[in-house]
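Hi Q.,

Before the meeting this afternoon, I wanted you to have the glutathione prediction in hand. No need to reply - just skim if you have a minute. The sequence and ligand are here:
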Amino acid sequence: MITLYGVYRSRASRPIWLLAEIGAPFTHVPVIQAYRLPDAKAKDAPLNTASPEFLAVTPMGQIPAMTDGDLILTESFAITLHLARTMGGDLGPKTHAETALMEQWALFGASAIEVPALEITYAVADGGLKTPEGQSIIALAAEKLRRPLARLQAHLSTTSHMVGDRFTVADINLAECMRYGQSHPTLLAEFPAVKAWLEACQSRPAFKKMWEGRLAEPA
Ligand SMILES: N[C@@H](CCC(=O)N[C@@H](CS)C(=O)NCC(=O)O)C(=O)O
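Predicted structure with the ligand bound:
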């Protein structure tokens, strides 16, 4: 049985979305980020990334983490790739080449997209669209994204999905990185194939189920 640690409002959204696609049962332990609590060490604090019980699962103290029998995995993309490979059917790779491509796109998402996209999310959430400082952080982050987005635009102009002409874990991993950049008011319009692909990914029932769970959590 799979146990997944991490609230929806975290990168745990990635394996949660994947598990909803698979329809696999799992135990969800909603560990929350310690920094979101007034006193993470208080006796009555909910289970959080600084709780000794959670640090016993992963000394890194970050979510998501997952156990599958004796296997303990951290890193959201390692978790999604493992689940897709072992129980994901068509969501996982069918050949060694597909395995390599799914790994490539996960690494691309983590190294080229996630950080600048998050910079946009945080700056917009801080009201950055209304201040010159915020606008310049957002413009700089958008500029960092234009090159990888041009790469994605070229790819998605020739195929409907990231790998194998079907929806796979590669789409989930990249769509979840791209989601952070969606709060930029105009960037995605520059890359229409990426925009259409992202909207198609997010129209899937499993994404909506994950999103409902996320919205049900306190911000
Ligand atoms: N590269 C890791 C990043 C994990 C990470 O930064 N998790 C955040 C939540 S999304 C976290 O646990 N923050 C709380 C903390 O660092 O104490 C992954 O993709 O799983």
